[in-house]
Amino acid sequence: MSSALLEQLIDALRVLPGVGQKSAQRMAYHLLERERSGGQRLAQALSEAIEKIGHCVRCRDFSESEVCPTCASAARDAHLLCAVESPADRLAIEQATGYRGLYFVLQGRLSPLDGIGPRELGLDSLAARLGEGEVQELIIATNPTVEGEATAHYLAQLARQHGVKPSRLAHGVPLGGELEYVDRGTLSHAFGSRTEVSP
User: Fold this and answer.
1) How many other β-carbons are positioned within 10 Å of the β-carbon of residue 98?
2) Which residue(s) pair with 197 in the sheet?
3) How many CB atoms lie within 10 A of CB 104?
4) pTM given for the model
5) Distances from the Cα of 66 to the Cαs of 81, 85, 107, in angstroms?
6) Which of the listed ranges 63-77, 111-125, 181-195 does the model predict with the highest average pLDDT?
7) How far apart are CA 167 and CA 79, in angstroms?
8) Which of 108, 109, 141, 147 is most exposed by smallest CB count within 10 Å?
9) Segment 82-95, tens digit of pLDDT
10) Which intervals hold the zinc fingers (C4-type) (predicted)?
């Protein structure tokens, strides 16, 4: 018979994505057997993060201050706004590209079946921002899923209503990939979205 506190710890660890009963049990045993000091650091960091990290009022990304450092930076191009589904997507773009514009983090995608509509994604806030007249291009960087495409379509319409040029991230055959190994849906989309080769 295991202790109630151990069961409580295992149950608490299961809130993490992809962590089932066995993984949570392994983590709990590891923390208690070998990493008690690490567990205390984890508990303290988690407690502080939950208490102090909120959302930026401009872009909805995670932030410790009312306006995040990216939105507050005068070095960023305020004419470009990139809409992404999650903070992880924003970070991926920031690390992999030379993009120097601003962001709008949707914190999800349109999914009526899950009760996620325009209000849950903060699209009223995005519309207000587009209406300010500073943004000239809305770069739509949602994932190429059914919900992501529906969200992209909605965002493009919203941008046009405010006189802002909408653009969509290209997607198709990966760099270094071979056609015979690319899935049919990706290949079909890449073929249909082909562009002219510049001289």
Assistant:
1) 5
2) none
3) 27
4) 0.83
5) 19, 20, 17
6) 63-77
7) 13
8) 108
9) 999 999 999 999 99
10) 56-71
